[in-house]
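note to self: dont lose this again. the chain is below, predicted strucutre after it. 634 aa total, dont forget to put it in the shared folder this time
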Amino acid sequence: MAIIPSFPKRSEVAVESTWDLTPLFKSVADFEAALTDVLKQAQAFKNHYEGQLETTETIQSAIHALADIYKLVSRISHYAFLPVEANRNDQAAILRLQEAKNTIQQVNKLTAFLRNTLLEADDHILDELVAADDRLADYVRQLKRDKKIYLGKDVEGALQEFAPVFGQPLEIYSQAKLADMTFPNFTVDGVEYPLSFVLYEDFYMYHPDTAVRRAAFDQFSKTLAQYQNAVAQAYYAHVMREKAEATLRGFDSVFDYLLFDQEVTREMYDRQIDVIMSDLAPVMQKYITHLKEENNLDEMTYADLKIDLDPEYSQPLSWQDAENYVREAASALGEDYVNTIGPAFKERWIDYAKNEGKSTGGFATMAGGVHPYILMNFNGQLSDVYTLIHELGHAGQMINAEQHNLYLTDEPSLYLVESQSTFNELLMAGYLKQTQEDDRTQRFARAQMLTNTYFHNFITHLLEAAYQREVYRLVDAGKGFTAATLSELTLKVFRDFWGDAVVLNPGSELTWMRQPHYYMGLYSYTYSAGLTIATQSYLNVANHKPGAVDDWLNYLKLGSCPVVDAAKVAGVDVTTAEPLANTIAYLDQTVDEIIAYSKTLAKTHSKVNAYVHAQTKAKETVKINQQQTNREEH
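---
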């Protein structure tokens, strides 16, 4: 029987499976009132402080007042964009989001004078701020760094005016992908299947039927190809803007400009890509070959990369079961941590319904002064728990960081941001390995960790990063690119990593069209960087290294701490390749364990088959003998 997904309308899903936005605002009317109120607050802030920032006490008061304004901005932003993520067919929500963006842009302009004034102030004034209030240390440290690239209030103001325009390439890409692309149905064995961008990314890419999976990929790719030139042009506009600003701010390379805010050296960035491309590639080629063999595929094509090792294995579970799994796995970090993320369930922080128009994948975001919100799609399978605990890892970090830092500086570097979430996935894998006895579940725990946690972060996004690096190298060299150029770069990266283990069927070269990460600076490589820190920290905890749990909990409390210093708090030295080497060794060991479990299961299956065959043979012999006896008696 064909498996064809269908989703209810947003109005038809159970309320308890959706998030509760009333802690942000009780009603749309309250939200509309807040739009007016925040502009009044921003104007009052400007009237009160502009030209008056002459004493430490006044500056300190202004910074904290600004933090309060931006907590309200955060509530406004979340109330506006969360409904759109939950249902992109909600036109009223889309209009509210546009209104909120316009309001926030005005707030940014009204309050920009504070940062500009402090960027032009002498360092001794900034030092006095820290002496008076140590919660301002990260804020002041960032100001001192930003002085090096500050262009003056007039130029900075002009750039601020153009900020909405600078964001348009991503908006154009998103509209093309989610609104304009029309995917025709495809047919396999006489059955017609519907297709959309979301259906392919969330469903057909993992489909257990090889014919359906490959046919979906072919049709998906044909539609992508029709838009490749327009999408490439939007991307070109984006990177040209980045290069222009890099030059304007005094950077010789766009890489240095994009890594500046992350507080990451070029060496750390390149090492993350180079080591994985060279040292992890053989490990994953070994695994992907095993995956092909276990699924009895004629060849492993690019369209087959995301299939399950054991597609017939299923552990259905309820939402309550999922909560229980999370609580048990997270208990390794102690009761306080479990209590920090626990309210997510009873207070409806999580939108796990599946409905038309809902965004794919999952995310966690923190509404300032309220609590985190999480989006995911729950299919009632054990594999969903990995997504759930991943996003709750973000939530736990966000709560801790907001409690222990100034609101304006409570976000960690992009280099670190995926570490807290992937650490939680490792906790789940470890919990399953410790509590499940049967070989099949043991193999599932390892394979799920590999194909979900690591494949997603260490391979999918890493290969994106390797491709993106080649694009920026062209830009730095003063060269342009077309859709054909981007496809060629993509194929080269894939060939370098997968070698002969994967057949790159037509359409694989268009993978550069499928992610928005390229419009977010050097983001893609940070997934593997964060997971490297998470893996080393998890191994420290799993191996009962003294103080490892406390190190991790202290790490969760950090805000915009420099990357190297933050990683040291977690017990990891990212100035060397050792954590990355340890992570790759752990993955190699995991692949070997998966293969060993497969062999054990194959032997067990063979013995069962032999036993069943023997039993059947014995029954047939008895039946024949009985028939012979009956004939003789007759």
